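Example record for the data management plan.
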Amino acid sequence: MSRTDEPDSARRNAGPAEGSILEIADLPLVETYGSFSGRDSFRDTCRKLFALPDVPFLRTPDGQLVVFRNEHLRTLSTLPAAGNMSPDALSAGSFEALRDEAAAPAGTGGALVRILANQVFFTNAPLHDPARRILTKQLSPKAVAALEPLAETIIAELLAEITDVGEVDFQRHFGDELTCRFWAALIGMTAEEKGALVEFVRDMSGMFNIDPTEHDVHVFDMAADGYGKTVVQAVRRAVASGGFPLVDAIAEDIKGLEFSDDPAIAGIVPRDAGDYLAANLVDAFHTAALGASNVVYTMLRHPCVLDRLRADRSLLPAATFEGFRLEPPVLHLHRYALEEIVFEGVRIPKGTTIMMCWGAGNLDPKAFPEPEQFSLDRPMRGHSTFGAGVQICPGRILAFMLAEKTLDALVSQDLSLNFKEGDCDWYEKWAMAQLKQMPIEIQRMHQ
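Corresponding structural encoding:
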């Protein structure tokens, strides 16, 4: 019997015989080798681990399975039992209490959970597929191609604003602004709403701090409350007025989600397009902004790449691929065992949180020989930047387009790019590779 003919249970429970199965408690701790949180620590830890082929998995002190090898990440993500965290799992079983804004007011953590509960990343069957399709229909290759002129216009405006003005923080003055202006145009935000949104999204990024203080929680949760209300207000206004194709299509498709709320497993059904977009644009505003900046950062670290792109712009997709591979915005996210899984000789009990170290998969030498080298000749396949499986990021095509268009604008103009890598600083103990600052001076070479 071929592998494709094996029953589902056999494929799901792939691994050695029962007698040699390991428990998660038998695995070494992450701390033995370092940390996967924060860009610099993450890279150091990857170097150590990929020099040790006999360490297939790790664990955290609280019993999470840590997956970091490219093949394991991509294979495990195909298993239906390796699902998403439900709202109840996300909130440690207290979702119903957090749902009540009076009992869990903004500033306590409730605002963020109430927003995230409507994300497709916190749904499972039978809600996940139909809820996800609503978004993927609007972010298909054809749909994203139609949005390229808007992206090009906004990128040109932003570059004009930061050129010939002295040193600027590229992350703050370009990356953060890019995604906010882009989506503001698509959902009909006012100039005032757009300005407020930039600040809300910046403050919300603290939710990726793996060890936040009480003050940190207050800051990012208040920002989440402001963000959510701003997006919901704009979307509902756009629905009422009409004329915004993406919003109109999503509003119509939401009506077809005829499911009951199931906080324990399947997830929460968004009430309308406002709730749906507020939840699912969190990554579109934040992670896509980091992606564009990180790709530019990678290019600027390799001046020879910049020269090759100026000479041959057909290499832009390869440069964007390598930029995302080497500096992925997402270092790790979580999956959740919906039932017991035996995977590669390790038993994963039902209810186990699985740390999927997507960024590490990009530095696995088995998948990418000489993984820390920037190569425009590398095949553009196999990276784990955007996840894998049925939960792969639905906005990956758009994020790639925004980053590629940014590179294109930088190399197609006669610009001098004075980049100060030594002054760049990354957040540590974060689940994201996010720059605190990225100083750059852009000048026109011939005026």
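Summary line stored alongside the record: Residues 1-17 have pLDDT under 50 and may be disordered.
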